[in-house]
């Protein structure tokens, strides 16, 4: 459900027709953030395999299904600042009107959910589950000064960014929460592989 004026509204169509309509809008581009150090994983998350694809490959597949041009961001203008450093860099380099941010460690994310996110017309819109925002989210490059101001103030929280940007939120149904799981440790990857094998 989408929030509008404090009320939830119906999500947009979920079929391929809606995806085809989105593919005609070159103003939206996708950026996969892959600049983290992945200390808990012990290796580069992007190259780890899950099923037939790497974790990065899963994120690329989501963008491809939605026919969105996609860039993998591996180096930030201001290193060591977490996801917000990548967000700042991507918005500075953006050419279109909106940037979809994907993470390289969410292999269960489905294009339908992302399509619903992109259907929300707002400068900033985040998915929301369990009372918190997270990936994926979509931002206008016009918000770059506010992102930079937050980093200048030493605040790296994504939750704080959503508040600063007065972001709209796409409430994710509980049944879809597993799509938002991210893999941070080898144990997470092992559990994800077991989940795939069990069908």
Percentage of residues in DSSP E strands: 15-25%
- By helix and strand content, what is the structural category? alpha/beta
Q: How many strand units?
A: 10
Radius of gyration: 16 Å
Distance between the termini: 27 Å
Look at the structure and name the CATH superfamily. Spore Coat Polysaccharide Biosynthesis Protein SpsA, Chain A
Uncertain regions spanning at least 5 consecutive residues: 1-24
CATH architecture tag: Alpha-Beta Complex
Largest sheet: 6 strands, mixed
Number of domains: 1
The CATH C-level class name: Alpha Beta
Overall 3D shape: globular
Mean pLDDT: 86
Order of helices and strands: EEHEEEHEHEHEEHHEH
In percent, how helical is the residue content? 25-40%
* CATH topology heading: Spore Coat Polysaccharide Biosynthesis Protein SpsA, Chain A
| Number of helices, counting only DSSP H or I runs of 4 residues or more | 7
Strand ordering within the main sheet: 6-3-7-9-8-10
List keywords for this structure.
10 strands, 199 residues, two-stranded antiparallel ribbon
